[in-house]
Write a structure and sequence with these properties.
Elements: E1 2-3, H1 10-21, E2 24-27, H2 46-49, E3 54-55, H3 68-84, E4 89-92, H4 96-103, H5 118-121, H6 126-136, H7 138-141, H8 149-157, E5 177-180, H9 183-199, H10 202-211, H11 225-231, H12 237-262, E6 266-269, H13 275-289
Parallel strand pairs: 1-5, 2-3, 2-4, 5-6
Helix pairs in contact: 1-13, 3-4, 3-6, 6-8, 9-12, 11-12
Length: 290
């Protein structure tokens, strides 16, 4: 898992790590789930992916809601599927609660799973499905006849809301890598990124959403809510851009507070003169720990 504040270089590092270990990447940024929120969320482009498979990008329309519990289920199933292929998963993002729900055994009472991945199970053997069940829902797996395909599939669809036992952490061998830089430098990078987003079409992207009269979770993203106020005539464009920069700085501070206090992160200082040195340092660390 690669974590850190916005604009610190997580995406760039994740690509290099994925290339080194023949990995696939799982998105850990809550606002990048949404189709159409591209520029404002700094979503990776197909060109930047460099052929690396990415999961859980653009999986929702802007009208849809999506919970942490649903994310937890989808990611754990993705990890299990990648494990079946012998592929090393890399989760990258800055949404602290979503990421914590993966590595720790968060329980969400009353939540039910999203059946998005059930189609992928059709081509798997019963034995493979049983291993996925054991990996993602070990407590329910103990109560299931793992040789009965129908029962295994039904158990994969079940909620674990009645389970009270907790195991911390959920993945004992998870490596959580954090990137950090001097706060003044980070804030400068954030402001430069916002300026670049404006130049690259953020206003036009936000206007399309505004004209659809979208309400709900997606348009609460930084960059969109401020421009919506501008479109409504409540503030000037200059004020909107200033607010985007301010709110992005504040968000970066909250991100670091979460990662420092709630996750067991190994931190790496970004080499601002040569990012390649940071990449090498991280890769060497992963090799030593693997």
């Amino acid at each position: 898992m690669i974590v850190g504040p916005t604009a610190v270089g997580k995406t760039k590092l994740s690509i290099e790590v994925a290339k080194e270990f023949s990995s696939e990447i799982i998105n850990g940024d809550a606002m990048q789930f949404y189709r159409g929120l591209d520029i404002g969320t700094a979503k990776i482009t197909p060109l930047e992916m460099q052929g690396i498979n990415h999961h859980l990008l653009d999986i929702l329309s802007v009208e849809e809601e999506f919970s942490v519990a649903e994310y937890q289920t989808l990611v754990r199933e993705k990890i299990a599927l990648l494990k079946e292929k012998g592929t090393f998963p890399v989760i990258v993002g800055g949404s602290g609660l979503y990421l914590s729900s993966i590595v720790d055994d968060y329980q969400f009472l009353g939540e039910k799973r999203n059946a998005e991945l059930m189609k992928e199970y059709d081509e798997l053997s019963t034995e493979s499905l049983a291993r996925i069940l054991i990996d993602t829902k070990p407590l329910l797996a103990k109560k299931c006849d793992l040789s009965n395909r129908r029962r295994v599939l039904r158990t994969l669809e079940k909620s674990e809301s009645d389970i009270q036992e907790l195991t911390m952490p959920f993945y004992d061998n998870a490596l959580i890598i954090g990137l950090e830089i001097d706060r003044k430098v980070l804030y400068q990078r954030i402001e430069e990124r916002v300026d670049s987003m404006i130049q690259n079409g953020l206003i036009e992207e936000a206007l399309k959403l505004y004209e659809k009269r979208i309400t709900g979770q997606s348009i609460k993203a930084i960059g969109y809510k401020e421009l919506f106020s501008y479109f409504k005539g409540e503030i000037t464009l200059e004020e909107a851009i200033s607010l985007i920069k301010r709110n992005s700085r504040r968000y970066a501070k909250r991100q670091m507070t979460w990662f420092k206090n709630k996750m067991n992160v190994t931190w790496f200082n970004v080499d601002m003169n040569d990012f390649g040195n940071t990449v090498k340092e991280v890769i060497e660390y992963i090799k030593k720990r693997s």
